[in-house]
Amino acid sequence: MAASNNPLSAGNSAWTRVANSGDFRKLLASKKAFVLPATIFFVVYYFALPILVGYAPDLMQKKIIGPVNLAYLFALSQFAVVFIITYLYVRAARRFDEASTRILAEAGKITGKEN
Amino acid sequence: MNFTLVLFLAFIAITLGITAWASRRSGSSASYFAANRRISAWQNGVAVAGDYMSAASFLGIAGLIAFFGYDGFMYSVGFLVAYLTVLLVVAEPLRNIGKYTMADVLAYRLHPRPVRAMASLSTLVVSTIYMIAQMVGAGALVALLLKGSGINYQTAVIGVGVLMIVYVVFGGMIATTWVQIIKAILLMAGTVLLSTIVLAHYGFSLSQFFNDVAQVHYHTPDGKEVVKDFFTPGLRYKPPYGALDLLSLGMALIFGTAGLPHILVRFYTVPDARTARYSVVWAIGLIGCFYILTTFLGFGAATIVGRDFIAKNGGNNMSAPLLAQALGGSVFFAFICAIAFATILAVVAGLTISASTSFAHDVWTNIVRHGKEHDPGEERRVARISAFVVGAVAIGIAILLGPTANVAFLVGLAFAVAASANLPVILFSIFWKRFNTGGAVIGLASGLIGAVVLISLGPAIMAVDPPTVVGAARHLIQRPAVFPLENPGIISIPLGFLGAILGTLLTARDPEAEEKFTELEVRANTGLGSEKAVAH
């Protein structure tokens, strides 16, 4: 297959039509509604670890389960957070996929080309 | 014959077989650079994990935990959390926008030549310094593992270098991908096995294991016996700057991974953005399990083998192999050593292909040739030659530096440059309409220069060594460090972002780039117009 499989040449108003379509705007908004809070959450949660470990060492050295301290449990919880956010994102992204399939079908109609 | 050597040779034979098979399938640019974009989600996920879990992870983190406990485990956490940045922000848009390299994303709507020149420079810097760190480590490790078999440091470095060149030059991305997959499977198998044996040693009682971790015995350099709770933070990152350094390290890890060229190019090998997403999920699963298990590798080495013994038998990088020897005897030791060897080989191959692809695609085809091959296959030919050159240069520098060279900081530097130079401009290209060529060039330059200068002024390069430290192990500049942190990220990452923002705002608006943003947004989010997989 040729490298230039771009169905819409640059500057074609069809790009703009897709970009301005309600479905596409909705897709961008719903992506942002997931990705932005999720990113802020994991960044804040992650940096809480080195900050608390560095600046609240007494709290972090508190033994919670037998010899295991809060610092280690907090570190382990980071793994859980990664797995949970990954799961939630994959679930949300299925909706994004459906929306973009619909948008591509529309774009195919606009340009008269199946994509 | 040395059993480790037998396993090494078996791995080499299998991977060379794959390379021969792949070389017959690398007849087009899409196959050579992007494995025809037909790698499946699980295959690419395993390969991403393989590319990522370097000797610095397997040997380095196990060693850091064995020697410093909790502080070493902080690396494990950062290395994994980093993948959320890749998953949520970078992987899918990158797959939809680009073709072969990171620079493709920037060049899509900015002036391609200056942007590609800077992005390629940054790619080459990151890949080369990462590779030199791996090569020096590999040489020292192989020489140590095969002690008595007549293989010294030089031979080992040349051997590793020649193999990586062969994989990349003849097998391209297809061979490199399968080398990563085999290596990642071996590494996971070895890690699970070793962790299970550690647990078995404690009668499968976590509480007994953790009790031992809370009281690790070892001797300080002046011969005093101490008992430390290895769950306690701060054994490595000490006051006054330890806390800040740990924070700075964390920033470089979680923002740097999404800017590592050899990880990014992996997402061009899959058919579409959806597969790219699922391959990150596979990678997160594998990498997550691996880094959780570093608990057993690292703390296990601390409690079962002991810091004193490891220090006398090769140093902290030998913690995992020595743990295997203590628990499973010489056969298991040989197995773990062979895995470490496979790990290094696969990672240097991944680095070589990303560096040579960037040179061929960004510098040669798009800057020198203005975006057109003069004759078919030129781009691949240039890539093969540059893989050869990159490999030869890395071999040369690694031999020049020698096995005792102080190179551990190079991996940290690679992450710092990736986070400070690459990530800001990737993000702004995808998400900021106003972003322009000036912003990209200045952002890349300020991140790159900031990271390199701060590392050069920091304790990795500047320190006063006692006279007992000789040769390449000595610090380059024998003066107290100007910049107190080992990790420059906390300054250089904001510097990279600031450079990109100011560079954009202080140069003229680029109406063409802003107009093309609409197109990029559609393409990034729907895959419309993106590079397709090659049909059979």
Structural class of chain B: mainly alpha
Task: Report the end-to-end length of chain A measured between terminal Cα atoms.
Answer: 14 Å
Number of helices of chain B: 19
Q: Tell me, what's the shape of chain B?
A: globular
Number of domains of chain A: 1
- How far apart, in Å, are the first and last alpha carbons of chain B? 45 Å
Beta strand % of chain A: under 5%
CATH class of chain B: Mainly Alpha
Low-confidence stretches of chain B: none
Largest sheet of chain B: 2 strands, antiparallel
Largest sheet of chain A: 2 strands, antiparallel
User: Spans of chain A with pLDDT under 50 lasting ≥5 residues?
Assistant: 1-8
Would you give an account of this structure?
The complex is a heterodimer of chains A (115) and B (536). Chain A has one domain (22-111). In chain A, a hairpin with a 2-residue loop joins β1 (63-65) and β2. Chain A has 115 residues and is mainly alpha-helical. Chain A has a two-stranded antiparallel ribbon. Helices cover 77% and strands 4% of the residues of chain A. Chain A has four helices and two strands; from the N terminus they run αααββα. Chain B is mainly alpha-helical and 536 residues long. Chain B has one domain (3-526): Sodium/glucose cotransporter (Up-down Bundle). Chain B has 19 helices and two strands. Chain B has helices spanning 3-23, 29-34, 41-52, 55-68, 70-97, 103-107, 112-145, 153-201, 206-213, 242-256, 261-264, 273-305, 307-312, 319-368, 378-401, 408-431, 437-457, 489-506, 511-526; strands spanning 216-219, 225-228. Chain B has a two-stranded antiparallel ribbon with strand order 1-2. Chain B is globular and about 70 Å long. Chain B starts with a helix and ends in a 10-residue tail after the last helix. Chains A and B meet through α1, α2, β2 and α4 of A and α5, α9, α10, α12 and α19 of B.
